[in-house]
């Protein structure tokens, strides 16, 4: 079995209104050195196979077909064996 960890982020040229709102809130709280805040998603799930290549392929397909909007988001992932 494998544990997958996925990070999804808006592409750099895509406006991130949630990140902008958080950054403005940070400024109001005195965090004046915080810049360029971007908000993304952290996703964990498990893949029930013993084949690393199959797990890697399934994670990639799952991200591309369901978890990520390829028009505005990029993603990265890692998989690790769990017992």
TrEMBL record:
<keyword id="KW-0547">Nucleotide-binding</keyword>
<dbReference type="InterPro" id="IPR003850">
    <property type="entry name" value="PurS"/>
</dbReference>
<keyword id="KW-0436">Ligase</keyword>
<dbReference type="Pfam" id="PF02700">
    <property type="entry name" value="PurS"/>
</dbReference>
<dbReference type="InterPro" id="IPR036604">
    <property type="entry name" value="PurS-like_sf"/>
</dbReference>
<keyword id="KW-0963">Cytoplasm</keyword>
<dbReference type="GO" id="GO:0004642">
    <property type="term" value="F:phosphoribosylformylglycinamidine synthase activity"/>
</dbReference>
<dbReference type="GO" id="GO:0006164">
    <property type="term" value="P:purine nucleotide biosynthetic process"/>
</dbReference>
<protein>
    <submittedName>
        <fullName>Phosphoribosylformylglycinamidine synthase, PurS subunit</fullName>
        <ecNumber>6.3.5.3</ecNumber>
    </submittedName>
</protein>
<keyword id="KW-0067">ATP-binding</keyword>
<dbReference type="GO" id="GO:0005524">
    <property type="term" value="F:ATP binding"/>
</dbReference>
<keyword id="KW-0658">Purine biosynthesis</keyword>
């Amino acid at each position: 079995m494998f544990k997958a960890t996925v990070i999804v982020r808006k592409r750099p040229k895509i406006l991130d209104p949630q990140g902008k709102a958080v950054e403005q809130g940070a400024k109001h709280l005195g965090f004046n050195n915080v810049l360029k805040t971007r908000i993304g998603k952290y996703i964990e799930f498990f893949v029930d196979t013993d084949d690393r290549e199959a797990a890697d392929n399934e994670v990639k397909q799952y991200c591309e077909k369901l978890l990520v909007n390829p028009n505005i988001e990029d993603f990265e992932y890692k998989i690790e064996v769990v017992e």
